[in-house]
Design brief:
Elements (H helix, E strand, L loop, with lengths): L2 H15 L1 H9 L6 H15 L7 H14 L3 H13 L4 H15 L1 H18 L2
Helix pairs in contact: 1-2, 1-3, 4-5, 4-6, 5-7, 6-7
Length: about 120
């Protein structure tokens, strides 16, 4: 493991999805899943999210559309919260999920709206 990339990724991961989520993910990791936590922190957050070519707000919008299209509700929940933390508005999230519904199907769009409403309620927005 590249410790420098891991630390950079850990910092970004915490800034985007929050300390509580990251702490829980790391605390709940066991011998089997710890390597996945290291991989996602080092490569996803440390290598890709730290790149200068696209800002975090844009990366969040991209993640929302991809996760909705792939029907990954757990990750979508996390990244809706991250998108809000990165300055994406509720209105922009709505537009992303409307686009998903048209291009990926109504079930994907409807499911995304359901998850977003849950996150907004949890965040008090």
């Amino acid at each position: 493991m590249n410790q420098e990339l891991y630390e950079k990724g850990l910092k970004i991961r915490r800034e985007v999805v929050g300390d509580a989520y990251v702490d829980a993910s790391l605390k709940n990791a066991d011998e089997f899943s710890q390597p996945m936590q290291e991989l996602v922190t080092q490569y996803c957050w440390g290598e890709v999210w730290s790149r200068p070519g696209i800002d975090r707000r844009t990366r969040s919008l991209m993640n929302l559309s991809m996760l909705a299209a792939l029907n990954r509700p757990d990750e979508l929940h996390t990244h809706i919260r991250g998108a809000i933390n990165n300055g994406v508005t509720k209105a922009e999230i709505r537009e992303v999920f409307l686009q998903v519904a048209v291009y990926c199907g109504m079930p994907a769009g409807l499911g995304s709206f359901k998850i977003a409403r849950q996150v907004f309620k949890e965040m008090g927005i």
